[in-house]
Amino acid sequence: LSLEVSPRDIHRKKVNSLRKNGITPLHLYGKGIVSASLQADTLAVSAIVKRAGHNIPVSIVTKGTQDETLVFVGEVQYNPTTNQILHVDFFSIDVSHSLKRDVPIFLTGESPGVRVHRGVLVQGLHSLTVECLPLNMPERIEVDISMLEEIDQGIRVADYIPESGVNVLSDPEDLIVRVSAPRIDRSARADTI
Question: Could you read off the pLDDT of 95-121 as tens digits, one per residue?
């Protein structure tokens, strides 16, 4: 993924004029670099934030130069009313140094414990903390729940086997997902009393 940016001279409250013209203010920072105020086309920024999330490296290219920096999307500020992006921070990365990130968990498959035994799927964790080189950073962690066949079966962090080069730092005993017994319907229970 790549985003063309240009240097930004407008700061503080005056950046509203940029936003009105379809430009989003950006900030680049990171270890070993001079932080920089940048700007880019709002539609391009929105597309990059949506596609890259916080774990896919993005190459930002400064317009009119050969300057190219590999970054992760950092903090994204949104307008609370319109949900439009107001400002984005980009964190410069060194591909030769590993770093820690929280990677979102996505559940895949269908649990027989839920489908057949009418259990309730309870997800205890929504992300795992991992450490790896930036280019090995997973976009997401997929956990297959089709092996959860019975009530009270679960998948712990220790059960997840990461790709080569990815080290999971989350507590191995933490429960990612579990099939719990269904709650008894109160009206049905009242009928039996």
Answer: 899 999 999 999 999 999 898 888 899
